[in-house]
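Progress report, Aim 2. The chain analyzed during this reporting quarter is listed below.
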Amino acid sequence: MNFKTRLAVLLIISMFLLSSCEVYQTLYGTVPKEAPETTKETATKVVRVEGVQDESNLAKQIYAVATAAPHDPFKLGENPLGPFDKGKSLGFTLGQWLSTSGIGIYSVDNENAELDLSFKNLVPNGVYTVWCSRITFPPEPSIVDMPCGAEDGSENSFAADEKGAGSFSLKLKPLEASTKETASMIAVAYHSDGKTYGASPGDFGSYTHVQIFFTMPEPASDAVKYQVPIKFTNHLDAGFPEQDVFVEVEEAKEEEVMEEKPTVIGEVTQEETKEEEVTVSEGEPVVIVVQETELVSLSPQAEDPDKDTNLVFTFTSPLNENGEWQTTYGDAGEYTITLTASDGESTTSRDVLIIVNKKEETPVIDSASPIESGLTIDETQAVEFGVVASDLNNDPLAYAWKLDGVDVGNEDTYAYQSTYEDSGTHTVKVEVSDELSSASKIWSVDVNNVNRKPVLEGIADIEAGETDTITITALATDDDGDEIIYGISDDRFEQEDNVFTWQTDYDSAGTYEVTISANDGQDTTEQEFTVTVKNVNRAPVITGIVQKK
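Predicted structure tokens for the chain:
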């Protein structure tokens, strides 16, 4: 994308919240010119301001317009900067309007998203709305205006306090990801009539005034959980005219206006002031490339052919008055600033494109639990693992947990639940990644074996008669697979492995309490039952026969 295309993209950003009709008019220059007022030679009007503003302009009161003024950041229409019919005073200066700042976080977690924004130097007690719009870049630009949250605009308003501080939090559906062709943006509009207009932003310039905005960058990956740091900007700092607030200017006679259309500088025209002549240098902008955390320090060189004065240099944001900017993590991107050289009568400006490349930093695991790297537990016990990680680049972080090399989780915590099959040594590893680099932590977990007792099948009480053979077969299982040794408490039984046999006789009648046992080498399980041997009558035995005397 060349510089001209980048500039076009920046300018389109300011057109958010335009209706489709307004977009067409802005891009194709069909905004009708206001009919000239031939009945008055002079009249008080208001104009849009652009470029670097001096102290006198910043101290000017700002106004609304009498009727809505469509956005025209490209200056393609016949009347891009005005003059317009002056509306009501907004009650504060241009400098106060431009001093507003805002930061925040846009968080996405799968199908859920959240905006958490904070503002300073808003209009005290002012009514505001927050807009989530979708822009399509050239060559076929378009825009869809949407209130953040509910489609009817019932969730996108907030009010500043008496000191001009404000905050806005909202849970919403994730915004469509930005691409090279289209982008999502968040804009904050002040309503000077104290009213909001539901699904519509209202009349721009009259009652609705876009103060600051932020354009979502293209995502660095396909991650479903990430955060985007937000830093709002205003129209002038973004490099194009202020769109929704205006300053007074005395209009020249109509004949002069029709004869030649003057160019607006701040709040006055070139034809109205001879104090300073502005020249814009031709050619592509100077390109400066740095990495995040490096200092941008411009040392401009210029010549004054008159050689009778010292030149004064000024710089637009984010550079300070010395032409310096200390970048930090999260500043990666492209910034177009304007350098102006002045001899007190004439000024020359030159654009500088500052490209801040991302300085990749490895994520850091700030803390982990358990603290110990070597753990010992018994089978069936559980251990909770967790990490707190950070990334100086503010990149979205992804978590990957592995148990013995097998993926088991992707959150910042993981619970290991051991089973009776887990005796031995295991490893738990977490890897925290920002897609380019990663940090990891490993724990060793020794799981002690927990023996499970054998389980004996039930044995019912036994009844038998004298001379019967009693056979008992003991059946037991062991979940650990241990070898089982059987035993019996009554030595009248003969044992062969798990089979016990007693050959009763005529002297065996009686009741016996018998216990069968199963032992796995560590634990014994027993089963008690009763054996009853009933008496069996025996027929008389004739022992002899003799003759009676």
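The first helix runs from residue 3 to 13. The radius of gyration is 43 Å. These observations will guide the mutagenesis work planned for the next reporting period.
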